[in-house]
Description:
39% of the residues lie in helices and 15% in strands. Helix 10 (270-276) crosses helix 12, helix 15 (397-423) packs antiparallel against helix 16 (429-452) and helix 22 packs across helix 23 (584-593). The protein has helices spanning 17-32, 56-59, 65-69, 94-98, 123-126, 144-154, 160-164, 198-214, 219-231, 270-276, 279-290, 302-314, 355-358, 388-391, 397-423, 429-452, 473-476, 479-484, 491-498, 501-511, 516-536, 574-582, 584-593; strands at 43-48, 75-80, 106-107, 115-121, 133-143, 183-193, 242-247, 251-254, 294-298, 324-326, 343-347, 368-372, 377-381, 561-565, 596-601, 606-611. It is globular and about 85 Å long. By secondary structure, the chain is an alpha/beta fold. It is built from 23 helices and 16 strands.
Amino acid sequence: MEPNEHRNKTVIDEKHKIQSSNIQKIAEIEKEGFDGDNNFIDYFMIIGVKPEIFKNSYLYNSNSISEINSNLIPQIITKFPKIDKKHIVIENSIPQQIFPMGFNVIESETKPVNQFYSVILDNQLYSATYTNKYIACLLIYENIQDYEILNEKYKISDSLSKMMRSNSIKSEQNTKNEKYKKYYIPKCLCLVSVYPAINRFEEILNSLYNLVNSNQFNNLYIDRIIEKLVMEIPKLPRGLKKIFLSLPPNNLVDLTENKMNDLPLININLPKFFSILDFSIILEVFRFLLFETKLIFFGKNLFDLTNSIMSIISLIYPFKYQFQIVSILPKELYHFIETISPYIFGINETYDEKFFKRNNIHLDDATICIIDLDNNKNYIRIKNAKNLNKDYPPFPKNLKEKIEKDYSKYKKEKENRKSKEIKDINKSIKTKMEDENKEYQLIFFNFMIALLKDYQKYLSKDYGVNKDISMSIKDMIDTNAYANSFNINDRDFYNHIFNTQMFIEFIYKRMMPKNYNEKVEILFFEEKINQTKLKKSIFKSRDNSSSLLLNSEDYDYDNETIHIDCSTDIGVTQKLYDYIIANKEEAINNFINNGYDIDIDEENKLINFKPWC
Length: 613
C-alpha cells in the first residue's frame, strides 16, 4: 500500500489537521487526478525489478550473469501518489531513461557504491505541456539473496519503506548459496518535480536512504515522512519566505529560493562541470547552444552526463531553450538522433567515431556538436567543414575577450581565497559550491547583458497601440537595423542569434508576457543592462528610477520562516482508532513492539503515537 492509502479518510488526531487535507488530496487524486502544481515534489518512485521475479528456481538455475540480465526489464515498482497528477503524467517509458543501458545485475566482491544523478523529462517527448520535469535518482544496490529474503519476509508488500529496506535485512539464508553472495541488483529511488533543485533532492534522497538503513525507524514512520515530502512542501515562492525542511534525525535542508529581484537560484553542481571541460571548450559548446545547433553529450558517468547538460542550459539565462532535451537517451531511442529539429541529448557511453555507424544512425547533412566528457574534447560533425565559420560564425572579439577576462579574474580570486577557505572550517562544502555557482552564473549572465545591451532601442515604438496576438517578431523588433548597428565582421553572428527560437521567444516574453513572473524577469534583465551602462558612464546619476526593481524591498525575506518538520507525531484514522479501542491490550503491545509510544484519550476520541526515537 502507498502511504496513508491503506487507511480511512478520517483523521482523529487534531494536532495534525494538515494530515486531513493530505488525505483529502490523495482521495481527489485517486478519484479524478490532480489539476494543480502547487507542490515542490510531485512524486516519490522506486524503479527496479519487483522481488517476485527473483525466484530461486529461476536465479539459481541460470548459467551466467548475462543470462539473468537478458531477462530483466526495469519498471516502476511503486509510486506515491499512485494516480498521476494531471500536470505531470508518469509515462511507462521512464524506467528506460533511469536505466539507459539496460538493467544489469552487478558481480562484485563488495557492495557497489550508491550513485546519484538526474534525468530531464522533455516536455515534447513525454507530455503535451510545455514545462520540463526533473527526476532526481539515487541508484542503490542490494544483494540478490537479500532481495529474495525481502520477498519472503514482506510478501511483496507495496509499502514504500519496505521496498527500500531490503539491504538492511540479514538472515542465515545468506549463506544458503555461495554462488549468489557476490551479485547485486540495482534499484533507483526517485523524486519527480518541475523544479531543477537537484542538489536539494540529493540531500533528501540520501537522508531517506540513511533513515531506512539505520533500522531506528519503522515502516509506518518512514511512509509518513514520504507522504509529507510529496504532499506538504508548498510551491516555492521567489523571495518573501525562507523555507527549511527538517528530516530526522537532524538534517536541515534549505529550500529558500532567491528573491525576484535577483538571479534565479542554480541548484546544480556548476563547479563539477567546469572541472570536467576546459573553459575554451565550454565557450565553444555555449556558442553552438546559442545557435541552436544539435548537441550530443557523451559520458560514462551518469552524474557528470546529466549535470553537464543542466549546467550548460542554465548559463543562457534570460534565454530559455525551446527544443528537445533528453539528458539520458535510452538505447532504444537512439534513432531520435536523426531528428531534423534541434535537440540536446545525453548518451551514457564513451564517444568513439564508429558510434553512429555501429548504431545504424544516418545523419546525412546534419551538423552536430559532440561533447566527449570522458576525454575533455568536443567535435563538430559537419558535411562541409570549409563553411563552418560562415554557418556558425565565431563570437565577436569584444564579447569573447570580455567573458575570458571575467573568467580569468574569477579563477585568480578563487586561488587567492583557497588558503583562507582552508582555515574557514565553518564553511561547508555545500556553501562553497553555492558560492561558486553564483560566480559562474554571473560571468555568463554578464555576457548575455553585453550581447543584448541595446536591444530595447530597436523594439517597436507603437507596439502598445497596435498590440495584437498575431503580430510577428518583425512587428516587435527591427532585427535588420539592430544587426546593422554592429561591426560588419560581427553581423553574421548577430543575425544567427536573432533568427533563433530562443531570441524570438525572449522578445515575445518582453512584448507579451504571459504572467507576472515573466514581466519581472524582463524588468530585472533590463534594469541590469541600465545598471551596467551607468557604471561605465562618466556621468554618475543619482536618479534611481532605472533600478526600481533592483532597489525594491518588496521581495525581501520577512521575519517569518516556514519550517516543514518531517519528524512529527503520526495521527491515526477512524478505522485504526476503532481497532485500538476494541483490542486495547493487544494493540498497545503491538505498537510497543514496533517502537511506538501510544496515548489513548477515549473522551475526546484522540490517539497519539510517536516513535521512541
